[in-house]
């Protein structure tokens, strides 16, 4: 049954006001108000936070005890399953805000239903006569509550099936039946079908709030198990609520989007509402730009996988829609201030990360812009061919080339193709991708490694993983399990032989995770094998690479394995220092900082990370200060072994691209840093000593590399720079407080002397003006002065020229100078009268410099030039007379 729609007016409220109203309402009911959690959840089953309940999953599942029983948030969410629909409908988005209230075993149905009703009807002021409720098929309890506690008549309560009224965040995890509150927007929003009613997917009966009675957990087999406690999870889209309250046709017309749409329309020189294609484009841009800004603010960077790939798609998709309206330059940057204006309260991260957001969006748009038109032309040609051939299919090879060479995300190619009625061969695309991966894998292996590969895989299959004892000890007894010489297994080796030795167990750390392999010795009473490096030639097999310097070694022999402890200790210090730097860099430069690579050696550490600008001196100093405070705090460094799943949700840093096994090792500096890491660390941060960043450089777009030193190496560095300073004090005089001033004084003094020297030269030359004129040649009343001078500044020459010009009306001056490096410099000046008579100073220089194998030119009154070789300057300058005569026609 559908009721007639009443027309009670609703008070207009901004989205910001509605957000605040919601949070304070539930706060008033005893809920703790949390700021939004990040967009990337600490949850390996989800790429993004897709609902307000995601950050609370461990509480619902009873894995962790919440600090409160009730909570409320306005949660930033991303959903990407319907990107193609964004902008085409009134209410699809990638980024949106979910208003939620949650109960962790605290309140349940009988509280949440009347509260939701009260909030909508009394606080927001929605017309109760426009509201309906839906419930899960057999949920009589919810039915009774809507009826008895709210007073909703039977015929306003609809029972719907699993698709509509059973909610789960994903295939597994917490879930439960739900009840939705529907708002009737009125017949003008209806699809017009005779059966249009509650449950219809058109815009008339809008689901505005979902109340989930979270009481089950679903496992991988689909089995539902009751949760330890009954919970509540509700979610209401702020965008939808705003559109209802603001009385507009769809979310894009609310104050959350409209200013962005208007600004995008202005940039594109289009009017919103006049052209369907342009309207779609500006709606898509407004949605994607919000999402991109928030993703970057939460530390996501464009890449080819994971959340970064989604970000890349969104930015590139926006750029393409901009292009479709004729915008042929990067423009997204210009819209960011509008996004900030709307969203920076309460999302201050947009302001804190403003620089990163701008830089990253601009760089990505520029990068894509460079190949976009070429790619589109190519795709258009291919689509025309596919249509002509009647196949209706675009080859996966073309899609792959567009991806690989032109940076077109596959989905973008698919979308443009679909618009042209052509589908993309995805299977072929996937196999091209796989082939490329294989090529990359093959080319990254050294040919020798490929040759030797068999012997290692065989050894690894036979011997299994080498037991590594190096976390606990640096020396132990072991048995020689295999010896590999020149890529072949051998039973024994003699003194002087280079080989790889595999032991039954070892304290030697083999290179992995950026930490170099250990060095040391393998020793028995009569033999000594010096280990130069330790590696993993295959899987977890450990091989000691080195030379037998004494005696013999054979398989089955007992030896003592001794790691070079001093070197190992220097490595440890640099490794823990790397973790401290990683955390400190994030704190100083922003959350986007992620490890992109690292190398840990006894002499230095290298750390690559995503960041868009060189670090300032202040930032470097701040990072060093934070790290050193952790060192001075002399904190114990702890390691613990746990399952990968257990480590999630504890704020531990993991590398995005890295594949972790089921069991991981967590290295923690309490209260500061936590990372998954298999490397070797100090047991107390105090052992690290001073950590100094010695170098900061860019290595490719958006990746910076720093080098740093710790421990004894820092002392050596410090001693070195102190010695250099002492030498400076000796040469310049002064001490730490005065040396800079002294050096500045010296530089100033030098400048003054140079100036004085030039002045003296000018004076000498000016004194000589008379002599220059006397020595000159006169050609029919025009004076030609051709002289070689020492190194004279241009300014001085000009002054000299002016002085001569004031003494002679028609005059040409050609000055040559031989510079310290043997190059010749030529300057020619002519007075106005001489120019009038036909002299061209630029051409004189051109000819003379040309004759010396150099070049030059200029204007009639002034010419300049030079030649690498100043030999014969004098003779060649003598030819000036002939040139001037020619110019004067004499
Ligand atoms: N988790 C539910 C939803 O996303 C209610 O918050 O609809």
Output the keywords.
890 residues, alpha+beta, nine-stranded mixed sheet, six-stranded antiparallel beta barrel, 27 helices, 24% strand, binds serine
Tell me what the structure shows.
This protein is an alpha+beta fold and 890 residues long. Helices cover 41% and strands 24% of the residues. It is built from 27 helices and 35 strands. Strands 1, 2, 3, 4, 5, 6, 7, 8 and 9 form a nine-stranded mixed beta sheet that branches. Helix 8 runs antiparallel to helix 9, helix 8 crosses helix 12 and helix 9 crosses helix 12 (354-389). The longest helix has 36 residues, at 354-389. It starts with 14 loop residues before the first helix and ends with a helix. Serine (SER) binds at residues 51-53, 100, 167, 210, 212, 233-235.
């Amino acid at each position: 049954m559908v009721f007639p729609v009443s027309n009670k007016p609703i008070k207009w409220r901004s989205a910001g006001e509605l957000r605040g109203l919601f949070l304070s309402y539930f706060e008033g009911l005893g809920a703790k108000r949390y700021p939004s959690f990040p967009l990337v959840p600490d949850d390996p089953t989800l790429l993004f936070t897709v609902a307000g309940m995601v950050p609370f999953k461990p509480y619902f599942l009873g894995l962790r005890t919440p600090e409160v029983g009730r909570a409320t948030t306005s949660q930033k969410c991303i959903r990407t399953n319907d990107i193609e629909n964004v902008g085409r409908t009134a209410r699809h988005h990638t980024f949106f805000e979910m208003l939620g209230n949650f109960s962790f075993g605290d309140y349940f149905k009988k509280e949440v239903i009347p509260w939701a009703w009260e909030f909508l009807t009394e606080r927001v002021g929605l017309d109760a006569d426009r509201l309906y409720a839906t419930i899960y098929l057999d949920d009589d309890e919810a039915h009774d509550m809507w009826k008895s506690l709210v007073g909703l008549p039977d015929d306003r309560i609809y029972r719907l099936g699993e698709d509509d009224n059973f909610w789960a965040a994903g295939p597994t995890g917490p879930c439960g039946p739900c009840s939705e509150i529907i708002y009737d927007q009125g017949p003008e929003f209806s699809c017009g079908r005779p059966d249009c009613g509650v449950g219809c997917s058109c815009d008339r009966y809008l689901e505005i709030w979902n109340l989930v009675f979270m009481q089950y957990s679903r496992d991988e087999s689909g089995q539902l198990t009751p949760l330890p406690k009954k919970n509540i999870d509700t979610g209401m889209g702020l965008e939808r609520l705003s559109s209802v309250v603001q009385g507009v046709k769809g979310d894009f017309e609310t104050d959350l989007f409209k200013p962005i749409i208007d600004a995008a329309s202005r940039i594109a020189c289009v009017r919103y509402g006049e052209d369907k294609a342009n309207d779609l484009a500006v709606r898509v841009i407004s949605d994607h730009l919000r999402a991109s800004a928030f993703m970057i603010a939460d530390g996501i960077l464009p890449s080819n996988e994971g959340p970064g790939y989604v970000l890349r798609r969104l930015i590139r998709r926006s750029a393409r829609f901009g292009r479709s309206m004729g915008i042929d330059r990067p423009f997204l940057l210009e819209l960011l201030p509008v996004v900030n204006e709307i969203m920076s309260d309460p999302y201050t991260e947009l302001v804190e990360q403003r620089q990163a957001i701008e830089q990253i969006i601009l760089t990505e748009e520029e990068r894509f812009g460079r190949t976009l038109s070429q790619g589109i032309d190519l795709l258009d040609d291919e689509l025309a061919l596919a249509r002509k051939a009647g196949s209706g299919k675009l080859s996966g090879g073309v899609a792959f080339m567009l991806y690989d060479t032109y940076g077109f995300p596959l989905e973008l190619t698919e979308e443009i193709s679909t618009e042209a009625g052509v589908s993309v061969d995805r299977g072929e695309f996937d196999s091209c991708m796989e082939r490329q991966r294989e090529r990359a894998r093959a080319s990254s292996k050294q040919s020798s490694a490929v040759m030797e590969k068999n012997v290692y895989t065989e050894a690894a299959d036979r011997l299994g993983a080498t037991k590594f004892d190096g976390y606990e000890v640096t020396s132990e007894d072991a048995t020689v399990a295999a010896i590999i010489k020149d890529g072949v297994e051998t039973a024994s080796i003699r003194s002087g032989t280079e080989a790889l030795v595999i032991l039954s167990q070892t304290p030697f750390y083999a290179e992995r995770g950026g930490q170099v392999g250990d060095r040391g010795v393998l020793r028995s009473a009569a033999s000594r094998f010096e280990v130069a490096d330790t590696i993993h030639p295959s899987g977890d097999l450990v091989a000691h690479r080195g030379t037998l310097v004494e005696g013999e070694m054979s398989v089955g022999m007992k030896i003592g394995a001794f790691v070079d402890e001093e070197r190992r200790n220097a490595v440890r210090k640099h490794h823990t220092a790397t973790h401290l730097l990683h955390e400190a860099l994030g704190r100083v430069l922003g959350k986007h900082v992620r490890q992109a690579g690292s190398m840990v050696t006894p002499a230095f550490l290298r750390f690559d990370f995503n960041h868009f600008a060189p670090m300032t001196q202040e930032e470097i100093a701040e990072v060093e200060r934070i790290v050193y405070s952790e060192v001075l705090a002399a904190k114990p460094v702890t390691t613990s072994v746990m399952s990968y799943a257990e480590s999630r949700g504890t704020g531990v840093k993991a590398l995005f691209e890295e594949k972790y096994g089921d069991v991981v090792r967590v290295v923690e500096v309490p209260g500061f840093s936590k990372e998954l890491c298999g490397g070797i660390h100090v047991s107390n941060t105090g052992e690290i000593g001073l950590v100094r960043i010695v170098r900061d450089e860019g290595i490719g777009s958006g990746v910076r590399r720093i080098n740093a030193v710790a421990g004894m190496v820092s002392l050596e560095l410090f001693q070195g720079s102190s010695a250099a300073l002492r030498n400076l004090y000796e040469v310049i005089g002064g001490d730490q407080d005065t040396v800079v001033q002294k050096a500045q004084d010296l530089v100033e003094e030098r400048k003054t002397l140079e100036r004085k020297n030039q002045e003296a030269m000018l004076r000498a030359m000016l004194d000589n003006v008379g002599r220059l004129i006397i020595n000159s040649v006169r050609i029919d009343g025009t004076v030609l002065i051709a002289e070689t001078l020492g190194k004279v500044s241009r300014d001085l020459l000009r002054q000299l020229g002016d002085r001569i010009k004031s003494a002679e009306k028609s005059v040409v001056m050609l000055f040559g100078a031989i510079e310290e490096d043997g190059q010749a410099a030529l300057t020619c000046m002519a007075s106005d009268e001489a120019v009038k008579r036909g002299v061209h100073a630029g051409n004189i220089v051109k000819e003379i410099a040309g004759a010396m194998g150099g070049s030059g030119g200029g204007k009639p009154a002034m010419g300049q030039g030079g030649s690498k070789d100043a030999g014969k300057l004098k003779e060649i300058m003598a030819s000036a007379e002939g040139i001037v005569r020619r110019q004067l026609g004499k």
